[in-house]
Amino acid sequence: MSEERFDVIVVGAGPAGLAAAYTMAQAGLEVIVIERGDYPGAKNVMGGVVYRRPTEDVFPDFWQGKSSPVERNIVKQSLWLMNKDAAFSIGYGSAQFKAEEGYNAFTVLRAKFDQWMAAQVEEAGAIIINETTVTDLIMEHGKVVGVRTSRDDGDLYADLVIVAQGVNNLLVQQVGLGVDLKASQAAVAVKEIIALPTGVIEDRFNLEKGEGATIELVGESTMGLTGTAFIYTNKDSLSIGAGALVSQVQQKGVNPNDILENLKEHPMVKPLIAGGETKEYMAHLIPEGGYHAMPKVYADGVMVVGDAAQMVNGMHREGSNLAITSGKLAGLTAIEAKERGDYSSKTLSRYQQRLEESFVLKDLKKYRNLSHFIDDNTHLFTEYPEMVLAASHELMTVDGTPKGDKFKAMFDMVKSKRSLWQITTDLYKGWRAVK
Ligand SMILES: Cc1cc2nc3c(=O)[nH]c(=O)nc-3n(C[C@H](O)[C@H](O)[C@H](O)COP(=O)(O)OP(=O)(O)OC[C@H]3O[C@@H](n4cnc5c(N)ncnc54)[C@H](O)[C@@H]3O)c2cc1C
């Protein structure tokens, strides 16, 4: 590999690494991105919804023009609570999301989206090397000074290394910034891309041309395990997936693939995917530990961005935006470090400060106790969906029973599953976890 020295080496060409590289390359820094996949996005998995504003903050107008990597503009989003044969849905759709100035989020396919971002990064002057795994960070006198790669003579040196390697944060652990994730701090997710004609998707999801919809599914969708499932519309395919905490999958001995197969057979889901052909199958981990699971994000000569720093807000299905924003903030800090000629942790602490000032750490801090709350209260994913569905079934069934009797039956059914005291306690604990 090249003997050349770089200003910055970025490990991983996902949204976090590419946002960092783009920010720095635009400012004239000499940047190299090392990616283990055959190309950026080759190995990457996401639902995947990307959010307009944080993404265009780095890649302006990414959603416009013929070469745009986006699939559909999302105009409505729903949440389904599920039992074995029914779904209770709530959702929000808005005409404002249909007008260009109101575009809010888009579906993407990572193979296309990551390659598109990588092309922008290369155009800005950075080098991207694929099919190369960073195996170690090279340290000298307690400072990170480069990376060791899977290639022969593959050591590379730089003033700064940005670790953007995603959820498997081995390099972060290696330099003592963080520890391995616990099984309760990560979800394992499986996903399929199912091809369907464009018009069929628009008919089934009640969409106009080019519009998109998302559905998050809770309850039986993950066979009662703590987790969620999703169905998102792409141009001519659906992304369908499900994920549950690794700790739960291990405890209950469930194969994650069975969760997805079970979901695809659900009577409310089956008609949405009927006649579709599975084009891709993939599995990936999602960091779920939140703020308490975060490593230290900087040290002498190194910064950590995106999933490698556990920056995912699972409650709101946000990860790509935290990755892109953290990448940008690390990039800005690197530019400052170059100007000062100082890559010590003192200068790089500005990255932490920038994160604190942004929505990234504000949100992660706000939800810092949520993963404990969810881990300690697994019944939220079983009893509450069951309760809502049983009550809805009673109310929706017109069978000559007077409404007063129906309401009493619903009330008795709710009380038989969880007492009013237990419900109040759950609500209070939930409020405390996010207040
Ligand atoms: C099933 C699923 C659904 C999701 N849905 C959504 C969603 O709808 N919306 C959303 O905002 N977020 C979603 N997320 C989360 C989102 O995908 C991540 O938060 C985001 O991709 C993180 O970006 P990143 O760049 O930090 O990491 P990644 O996207 O994981 O990229 C890391 C890159 O580093 C490379 N790499 C790893 N190790 C090495 C190494 N040693 N050497 C060289 N290269 C290496 C990888 O190949 C990869 O290209 C989802 C995640 C999953 C798994």
What does this structure look like?
- It is built from 15 helices and 17 strands.
- Helix 13 packs antiparallel against helix 14.
- With 435 residues, the protein is of the alpha/beta class.
- Strand 13 and strand 14 form a beta hairpin.
- 36% of the residues lie in helices and 26% in strands.
- The chain folds into three domains: 198 residues, FAD/NAD(P)-binding domain, CATH 3.50.50.60; 104 residues, D-Amino Acid Oxidase, Chain A, domain 2 (2-Layer Sandwich); 63 residues, no CATH class.
- The strands form two sheets. Strands 3, 4, 5, 6, 11, 12, 13, 14 and 15 form a nine-stranded mixed beta sheet that branches. Strands 1, 2, 7, 8, 9, 10, 16 and 17 form an eight-stranded mixed beta sheet that branches.
- The longest helix is centred in the C-terminal third of the chain and has 21 residues.
- The protein binds flavin-adenine dinucleotide.
- Flavin-adenine dinucleotide binds next to helix 1, strand 11, strand 14, strand 15 and helix 9.
